[in-house]
Amino acid sequence: MSLLKTLTNSLRPTLTRPSTTPNKAYAHLSNCNLCPRKCSVNRFETTGHCLIGAETAKVNVIAPHRGEEPCITGFHGSGSVFFSGCNLRCVFCQNHDIAHQRNGFDLTPAELAGWYLKLQDEGRVHNINLVTPEHVVPQVVLSILDAREMGLRIPIVYNTSAFDSLDSLELLDGLVDIYLPDFKVWKAATSKRLLKADDYVQTAKESIQVMHAQVGDLSFTSDGIAKRGVLLRHLVMPGKEDEGREIVRWLAGNVSRDLYVHVMEQYRPDAHVGKRRRGTKGRREGEGVEEVRYAEINRAVRDEELGSVRDAAVEAGLWRFCEVNEKSLFHL
Q: Which residues belong to the annotated binding site?
C-alpha cells in the first residue's frame, strides 16, 4: 500500500488534535520542512539532506536495549528503533555507523507498527524508543497511529538531538509520551564546526521549550519507570564546560527548575575526531607533529570539567538529576 493510501486510511475518527492528522504529515513530505535543514523537496520524487524518501523509513536496528538511563531501560529494556540518516553530522558521534550511514532496511509505517507490537508483546519492553527520528516524523506519526489501533499501550519515547522543526513537533503533539532531547553545545561557532549546523543552538532552545510545553516535567510509575515528560541530556565535552554551564543555566531559567537532567560523562573521541588530517600521511619522525582532526576534543573529559557543569546546574536551581552506574552500558 502506498503511503498516500496509508495516510488516507489512517485518518481515525478518534483523532481530535489537528496536529496529528495524516493529511498534515503528507503535506510536509511533499515539500519537506521536517527539520531545520528545510530542503523543501518533494520526497515522493527525490530526497534531500537525509537521503530518505517518503514511502518508508530506513531502520538500522530494532531490539530491546539496556543502554539507556535506568528510568527508561527499567527491568526489561527499552524497545529501541534506530533510524538511519540523522540530520546532524556530529564529528564525534559515537553511533556514527548507525546514524550517519544509510545502512539498514526500509520499513513502511505499517511494518514499523508491527515491530512496536512485537517489542511490547514479545520483548516485554517498557517503551518504544525512537532514536534519531527527526527526518522521518510523518512515517513515525503514521506508525504510532497504526500501532495504537493494533493495541500498543506502552509509552512512546522520542529520542532526539533537539534539531527539530516546530512543524514536526506539532505533528507529534499528543502522540509522544516522553521526549528525550540532547542539548549539545551553546555557541554557534561550536555547532557549525562540530555538528555541521550553525543554527543548532536557537533551534534546540525552541524545540526543548515546545517539548516541555507538550508533556511537562518527567513523571514516573510506582516502580520508577518514566511514563511522561522530558528527560534532558547534556554530554559534557572536553574544553567545552563553559558551554555546558550556559546550557544548564538556560534550562533552569527558561524551561523548568524541575526538569529531569542527565549531565553525561560518556564522551570519548570517536568518528572523525583524532583521525589523521589529509595531507599529513607519510611524515617522517622529526618532521613535525602529525596533525589530527578536531584535536581540541581529542581526549576524555576531565573530572573538574564535569564537576563544573554539575555545580552550575545545582547553583541554577536544577535538582532532579539522573545518575547512571559507571558500569552501565549507557552510551547514546
A: 86, 90, 93
Please list, in sequence order, all residues whose beta carbon lies within 8 angstroms of the beta carbon of residue 230, skipping any fewer than 6 positions away: 178, 179, 180, 181, 208, 211, 212, 215, 216, 217, 218, 255, 259, 260
List of residues 6+ apart from 217 with CB closer than 8 A: 229, 230, 256, 258, 259, 260, 320
In single-letter form, the type of residue at position 156 comes to I
Span 28-85, pLDDT tens digits:
787 787 888 877 677 776 666 775 767 889 999 999 999 999 999 999 999 999 999 8
- What angle separates helix 109-121 from helix 137-150, to the nearest 10 degrees? 50
pTM: predicted TM-score of the whole model, two decimal places: 0.88
Backbone angles phi, psi at 216, to 5 degrees: 75, -165
Annotated binding site for [4Fe-4S] cluster, which residues?
Answer: 86, 90, 93
Pairing of strands 78-83, 105-107: unpaired
Which tens digits make up the pLDDT trace of 133-145?
998 999 999 999 9
Cell reading at 225:
519507570
Domains, in order of start, for the chain: 19-321 (3.20.20.70)
